[in-house]
Design the sequence.
């Protein structure tokens, strides 16, 4: 499925009426849009990061998709308070949370999202926007991401034959 559709499907799983969720693409026009496998790892990982952004946003979350001949990138940014500076270098560790007092929150969301996305070959970076808000960048080497999709399609076709 096209990377745009995959990201949008992951975002559609979680809504908050007070937050506007915006999907956009930048660049990538010279290259055909990458086709990727709708894997549980990618869907759950993207959904979790988008869900966190929506929960902390004041009014808006943007999901920006970029691709070129060598890379595919999905960026998730919100207009909330951003990541606490003292935690930035440790994001992705288990049981790390600013909501530790919340009985329904264990601090595993980013850890699980990062672990799942890394299984798909992604690299994640976490930072804060200059104007405020959290910013997560998920990057894949395009050939690896598309090879996984082609391998899965071939397996499905072989099973059906």
Sequence:
């Amino acid at each position: 499925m096209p990377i745009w559709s995959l990201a949008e499907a992951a975002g559609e799983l979680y809504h908050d009426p007070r937050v506007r969720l915006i999907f956009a693409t930048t660049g990538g026009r010279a290259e055909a849009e990458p086709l990727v496998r709708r894997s549980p790892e990618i869907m759950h990982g993207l959904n979790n990061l988008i869900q966190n952004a929506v929960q902390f946003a004041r009014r808006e979350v943007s999901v920006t998709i970029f691709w070129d001949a060598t890379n595919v990138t999905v960026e998730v940014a919100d207009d909330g308070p951003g990541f606490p500076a003292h935690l930035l270098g440790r994001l992705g560790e288990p049981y790390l949370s600013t909501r530790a007092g919340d009985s329904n929150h264990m601090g595993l969301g980013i850890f699980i999202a990062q672990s799942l996305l890394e299984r798909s070959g992604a690299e994640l970076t976490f930072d804060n926007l200059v104007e405020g808000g959290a910013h997560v960048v998920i990057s894949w080497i395009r050939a690896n991401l598309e090879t996984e999709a082609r391998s899965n399609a071939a397996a499905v076709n072989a099973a059906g034959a």
